[in-house]
Amino acid sequence: MRLILENIKELVQVDPKHRLWVAGKSMSQVQTIKNAFLVVQDELIEDFGPMENIGSADYEGEDLMMEIDCSGKMVFPSYCDSHTHLVFAATRELEFVDRIKGLTYEEIARNGGGILNSAKLLQEMPEDDLFHQAMIRLEEIALMGTGAVEIKSGYGLTTESELKMLRVIRRMKQNSPLMIKSTFLAHAFPLEYCKKHDDYLDLLINEMIPQIAEDELADFVDVFCDRGFFSMEEAERILMAGIKYGTRGKIHANELANSGGVQVGVKNNALSADHLEFVDEAEIAALLGSETMPTVLPGAAFFLNLKLAPVRKMIDAGLPVALASDFNPGTSPSGNMNFIQSLGCLKYGMTPEETIHATTINSAYAMGISKNYGSIAKGKVANLFITKEISSYAVIPYSFGSNLIDTVILGGEIQ
Ligand code: NIG
Ligand code: FE
Predict the structure, then answer these.
(1) 288 and 331: one domain?
(2) Is there an atom of ligand 1 within 6 Å of 114 CB?
(3) pTM of the model
């Protein structure tokens, strides 16, 4: 099947160089083609270029061919959302109200709310129900332009429930047109282990991770290394347990304090270090030259009123930056990557171009898929969206809260 997009007002995030990520000053330039065409063959991008060259690609008369006129509309590679927790049992708006009344996120967590609250509800919920609810969230984010998503476990906390979550994610992979990566997350100490950290580490390292590896349920292993959660030493033991089974690490780091998580992540060659509100010169120096993608989660900082990650400093120092939604019931109950771009521009001083790289190619790198996703290049998977008629690509982050997406194409198929 061939799909031909014609008269595209502007084809955005074209990258003939097939870069795996974009860093520093280069983030401020996005390559585009005005008045363009793009050809999809089966699930891949076969060809693209200026409309005047479409004549040389002569597909007239083919049986299985479909043309879409994109006059006035722009075409983008789908967003890659490299950090979500979108398998969960229930929303947590009561905690949201508690926070409005003055309690902090950490106080709520200490009182058995937060992650432990989500864990209790998830442990009780049947696997089928979890799957169906999560599929609805997946469809919702697909319509907002996301074509690839990483989903974490971490609301199970027991071996049985963590496996249940990861099986749900595996079933989602089999039933969704989105590209999905699954991550086992060591998220918090259950109450009964709060004074017995070593016993829980033992369970994580000697029971959960080996079993998850045996069932091939996780692409990555992640740990919440922060004040009140896992220490540097504990986080390192968990990442190393994953590496032992050939599973690369990711890390939740420096959200609540200067936790040392960035350094632990870099030392263990984590694919990404995420959150990064508490980042200073030492963390920037550790990240420079590493293979760890600094990933900022503006939705969580916005929702919790956190201090903001120093994104400008990071990019100006030559680092790449990815942005992801952190879609989860406690700290970022939205997977809208258009809004994440808006926050990137409005709160972090990023240009629209920088947010485009941060939500496509750099976030694709942060989930290990930037060879095949995250930009418009020949041979990459045709995960794309066509916008409504818009005046320029900056109008997407400008129109915060709006959905300017008209048509979603995943794996070459119109959704
Ligand atoms: O990424 N920071 C750690 N974990 C999640 C929040 C989890 C929750 O509160 O349910 C996050 O923000
Ligand atoms: Fe998270």
Answers:
(1) yes
(2) yes
(3) 0.96
